[in-house]
Automatic annotation (TrEMBL):
It comes from Methanocalculus chunghsingensis. Residues 53-276 form the Molybdopterin oxidoreductase domain. This is Formylmethanofuran dehydrogenase. It comes from the Archaea. InterPro entries: Formylmethanofuran_DH_bsu, Mopterin_OxRdtase, Prok_molybdopt-oxidoreductase.
């Protein structure tokens, strides 16, 4: 009989699918097949088994040559660069467990670090808007069971969250949506003809960066007031029609992504999208939800919130937590030359930050803690490979709708490899020794 592990959580994207089945070899050491995951989710599990995987920490010299070091040496180096720095940047956190995040934040507090996560380049603007005006939201389960009007604004789940539509938003049969996709009308707002847009009942192909105007126009259209002939390049009749479609639903859910959080207007776009959702509640039930990318970026905001009161861009350099996105955000700090060491865990700024920031990281004492080889590990002085959360070690993760889900261990990590929580605990011990506390 096949050796199958069921109800496995996919720790790739913020959908955190929890229905995977993994077939193991008879001795339980190798992953043979991954069932129910999308292509990217399956690849995460299979890739963890790669023959050429780096399994020990490595230091890079000035000529780009790598030398293997022990985890103890790696922990000492990491503690030293953090303790020596006046203002170390501790960035990432979104692809690891809440338990590891919490140990990392203890280190940050001890060394007076700047703690920031990947929201700084994706949904940070959503977090600011939620602090400004609150958010009427719901869980993905509620949306699956109730939502008969689904809006995807500036997001493309067909590619970024491949099972979102089949598990929650469009295709599944829910309690009040018994005919699956036939129970729902889908509206996509996107300047591009995406694969998600090709499935929609209505695609509003607005002009790039004019989301704020179109969101305002919807609020006007809900009240039946007059609109100009075109708003954001969309004819007014199309806007009235889409507004009526939403008002006629029993439950509207608006999912939004980086197309609206990182385009012109940023957090103000989200402020008004939340205002629009509130307006819709005068006619029907409506909720709004960010499409979070990394599988535990939501958890990072939660853990930072419990520990310091702010979800990203936390400055601990003055002994108390400060928060001022735009000043205390990673790229602003790097561009202004304000940080003197860089620690990266569970993210890849080398791939996602502007090249000027990546060059700064390459010039500073730096460490990247990551199971993969990435553009970030290539520029950092120390690379510490760790076990894959959700594959080789369990841990708590938060789905995009703020529901905590306990991920599972499926196989053992390579012999002698530490988890990121174990490595961070070693670093914390070294930091305490250095500080004499
Ligand atoms: S949709 Fe996301 S969480 Fe689900 S299987 Fe694909 S990558 Fe994994």
């Amino acid at each position: 009989m096949a050796n199958i592990v069921s109800d496995v959580i996919c720790t790739f994207c913020g959908t955190l699918c929890d229905d995977l089945e993994i077939e193991l070899s008879d001795d339980g050491r190798k992953i043979k097949e991954v069932y129910h995951a999308c292509a990217i989710g399956a690849e995460k599990f299979l890739h963890s088994q790669a023959e050429d995987r780096i399994t020990r920490p490595r230091m890079q010299d000035d000529d780009g040559n790598w030398t293997e070091v022990s985890y103890e040496e790696a922990a000492k180096y990491t503690a030293k660069i953090l303790c020596d720095a006046k203002k170390p940047l501790m960035y990432g956190w979104s692809s690891t467990s809440c338990e590891a995040q919490s140990v990392g934040h203890e280190i940050a507090e001890a060394v007076g670090g700047m703690v920031d996560n990947t929201a700084t380049v994706c949904h940070g603007s959503s977090l600011i808007a939620v602090q400004d005006v609150g958010i009427p939201s719901c869980t993905l389960g509620e949306a699956m069971n109730r939502a008969d009007r689904v809006v995807f604004w500036g997001c493309n789940p067909a590619h970024a969250h491949p099972r979102h539509m089949s598990r929650y938003s469009v295709y599944p049969r829910g309690f009040f949506t018994g005919k699956g996709s036939k129970s729902r009308k889908v509206v996509v707002v996107d300047p591009r003809k995406t694969d998600t847009a090709s499935l929609a009942d209505a695609h509003l192909q607005l002009e790039q960066g004019r989301d704020y105007e179109l969101l305002s126009a919807f609020r006007v259209a809900f009240r039946g007031e007059k609109l100009p002939d075109f708003v954001a390049g969309i004819p007014k009749d199309q806007i009235y029609e889409a507004a009526d479609l939403l008002k006629s639903g029993r439950f509207v859910i608006i999912y939004f992504g980086m197309g609206v959080t990182q385009s012109l207007g940023k957090n103000h776009n989200i402020d008004i999208a939340i205002g629009l959702t509130r307006d819709l509640n005068d006619y029907t039930k409506a909720a709004i939800m960010p499409m979070r990318g990394h599988y535990n970026v939501t958890g990072s905001g939660e853990v930072l919130g419990w520990q310091f009161g702010f979800p990203f861009c936390v400055d601990l350099s003055r002994g108390v937590a400060r928060y001022n996105p735009g000043e205390t955000s990673s790229n602003d700090l790097l561009i202004r030359d304000e940080v003197d060491a860089v620690f990266v865990l569970g993210s890849d700024p080398g791939a996602h930050f502007p090249i000027s920031s990546v060059k700064k990281i390459a010039q500073l004492p730096s460490v990247a803690i990551d199971p993969h080889l990435t553009p970030t590990t290539a520029v950092c002085k120390l690379h510490v490979p760790v076990a894959f959360v959700g594959v080789e070690v369990g841990g708590c993760c938060y789905r995009m709708d703020n529901v905590p889900i306990e991920s599972r261990k499926v196989v053992d990590p390579p012999e002698g490899m530490l988890t990121d929580q174990e490595f961070l605990t070693m670093v914390l011990g070294e930091v305490r020794k250095n500080k004499g506390v």
